[in-house]
Amino acid sequence: MAHLRGFGRCLPGRIVDNVEIGALTGADPAWILQASGIEQRRFAGEGDTVASLGASAAQDCLSACGAAASDIGLILMSSGSAERRFPGPASAVGTALGIGGVPAIDLPLASAGSLFGMALAAQLAPAYGNVLVVASEIMSRTISLTPEGRDTAILFGDGAGACLVSAASGIARVVDSELHSDGEFAGILRLNHTGPIEMDGKTVILQAARKMPRAIADVLERNQEPASGVAALLLHQANLNLLTRVAQSLQIPGERCFRNLHRYGNTSSASLLIAAAEWWQEQNGVWPGPVVFAAFGAGLNWGALLAACL
Amino acid sequence: MNDQNKIQAILQQVAGKPIDPSPEESLFESGLLDSFSLTDLVGELERQFGIKIPDSDLTPRKFDTVARIEAYVAAKR
Predict the structure, then answer these.
(1) Is the pLDDT of residue A12 over 90?
(2) Which pLDDT score, from 0 to 100, does residue A134 have?
(3) Does A183 touch chain B (CB under 8 A)?
(4) Which among A57-61, A202-206, B41-45 has the top mean pLDDT?
(5) In sequence order, which residues have a C-beta less than 8 Å from that of residue A62 and are 6 or more positions away?
(6) Res B2: pLDDT
(7) What is the third-level CATH fold of B3-16+24-76?
(8) How many domains does chain A have?
(9) Which of A210, A242, A245 sits opposite B58 (nearest CB)?
(10) Is the pLDDT higher at A72 or at B32?
(11) Residue A6 forms beta bridges with which residues?
């Protein structure tokens, strides 16, 4: 059995609102809000890297858990926006934490990466002890802030999140998870070695609106948990309308679906753990019941994870 | 009600307003459907025509006009 010990996050300081994005892309700020639910996002500074944001989120997580970096047995690092092909940022995060030598694995999956990291960490924790899952993205360097890049430029922001998964103890137990990948639609959301991120938004929404609720329903059904009993739904923060649709399709009251998309935009794989960190801060230290984590993104990769009270 | 009329009724339902697209008119380029109403459209086609639309068919191109939707539904029966 594996446990979640806690979460952390790091958001760059620079706030970019829809007026600023609109001036660069020609998009009406009111339309950006209406189409996406996003009011503002954060952009990293010149000196920030995927690894530096990730390390800050990791330190925030360790602090929240009352754990030391030396307790970590394995790092799983998700990013779709790393600065180079290899090495990925995982090893740099380990070094920044002062635990060079600890194995560190990159998961270059983009949006669903942190969910995959959590699910893998739950499987690997019995062998590695404390597994640190980090997701960090600097999406602002993958977009084109021009009228041509408008449809994707309005959506993305930068940030990092982290989660510590442990075999020994925690704030909740990981009950079950399921992960899926399908390359048939690999072209609908991609970031090539050159050029900005490319997205066929309609197909992405169509696929996500079908696949993500089904994965959640599968995990709940397999564990005899009714959707009505879900205490919180923590989803990859991609689009406010999509979050609402997913909750509706599962008949989970909308207020149980945590949202911080309006503040940070879509931070790709980081979004799930940033959301988890902020949601957990609101819980006053009490895990409220069955909580579902779910994500969908490029690959296509998607899945769900169920965590419950100890 | 024939299939085309039934599809028109479903389109009105998911668009949430009276619309009357011609059979070959692009539902997306004309702004009659967006990403989310397309999601609703697919669900209603499955329910009202009793068909199963697999994930591999979930692309806007297949549902971009009334004529394409009609052909798709006919092929799925």
Answers:
(1) yes
(2) 98
(3) no
(4) A57-61
(5) A8, A68, A69, A97, A132, A164
(6) 86
(7) 1.10.1200
(8) 2
(9) A210
(10) A72
(11) A164
